[in-house]
Write a structure and sequence with these properties.
By secondary structure, this protein is an all-alpha fold. It contains 2 helices and no strands. The radius of gyration is 19 Å and the shape is rod-shaped.
């Protein structure tokens, strides 16, 4: 899950930069519409990365709780 999160996060960061350039250079309505559509796709990547980040944090939390219980420490 961690690898997928990294891949999505990096992809969305790169795509976000490209879309920012695309929208900044848009001079026609069609170009603005295309930039907006691309931004929706970048947002979808960001959303997927956020969901995976929550999963990563939950997994780490569960593993830490399990380790604490195994060692006899109180969580």
């Amino acid at each position: 899950m961690l690898s997928w999160w990294w891949a999505l996060w990096i992809s969305s960061s790169i795509a976000g930069g490209l879309v920012a350039r695309l929208s900044a250079s848009a001079t026609t309505l069609d170009a603005l519409i295309a930039a907006s559509a691309a931004l929706v796709l970048v947002d979808a990547l960001n959303l997927a990365a956020a969901v995976l980040a929550i999963g990563v944090v939950r997994t780490i939390d569960r593993l830490q709780r399990d380790a604490a219980q195994t060692s006899g420490a109180h969580a």
